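SAMPLE LOG
Freezer: B-3
Tube label: C17
Construct: single chain, 284 aa
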Amino acid sequence: MAKKKIGLPPLDWLRVFEAAGRLGGFSAAAREFGLTQAAVSQRIGNLEAWLGRTLFVREARGVSLTVEGESYLPLVQDSLQALERNTEDLFGKFPRELRVAGLSSNIHALVVPSLTRFHEMRPKVRVMTDSVARRSSLDEEKTWLQIRYGRGAWPGRDSELIAREVLVPMAAPGVEWGAPLIDLRGERPGWSDWARKTEQGDVTTSNISFDSMEHALSAARQGMGVALGSMPLAKADLQAGRLLRLNLPELKTRDGYWLTWPEDRAKSKKQRALIADFLLALQG
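STRUCTURE (predicted):
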C-alpha cells in the first residue's frame, strides 16, 4: 500500500480504529458507534490509505491486527485518553455525583458516617450507593467506584487504603469476659487464631455462629456474648457506647478496607480530586 499522506489522520478514523482493535473486530466497533460494518470498514480503509500501511488482516472468519496495527493501537489509545482527560480538565464541569458500591455492611459502617465530612468538602455533590449481597458480586457490578475488603491487589484496579482490619474482643455494656464467644465464619481470623497469636490459651465458642461481621456485631450489641469485632466496622458502636472494647489484646491482620476503581477510570484531575476528598472523608 503506497503512502498517501503524512500528518494527523481525522479523529473519527482513529476512534474507529481504536474500537476495532480493542474489541477485536469491525462488527463490535460498529455496534459501539452505531454504524454499519461497511462504514467502519470504510473508515479503517481510509486510515490505512492515509498511513500507507495495512493495519488489519481481513480473513473469512474476521479481522486481526497486523504487526504495525498492534504497534499503532496503544499509541492511539494513549493519545485519545490524554485528549479526553485534558478536555475534561479544561472545559468539563466539576463532578456533581459520586456513586459507590460495596457490601451493605461496609456502606453502613464506612460510608454513612463519612457523609457529613464529605459534604462539608463537596456540598454540591450528590452521593449514591449501590449495595451488593456478596463480595464476589463486585466483579460484575456496573458501579466502578467500589469499597472492597482484602489486601489491596485486584487485577486492573487501582486502590487506596481506607483502614486496616483490626480485630478486638468487644461486648455490650455489662457483658464481661467469660460470656459466650460469638463465632464468626469466613476469611477473617477467628477466636482460635486470636487465642493462638495473642497467647491467651484455649477458647471455646458458643452455639451462636454467623457468616457476617455485621450480624456478629448486632448479636454483641444485644448482649448475646463477646464478638471478635472489626474496629473499622464497629467504630460507630464503640463511639456511641453500644459496644465496649474489653481489656484484652487486639489482633492486627494483613487485610483492610479499600476504595478501588478501574485503572482506566478516574484519569482527569477533577475526578481524582473528587475521589481524594471522598477517601479523606472515609479515613476520618
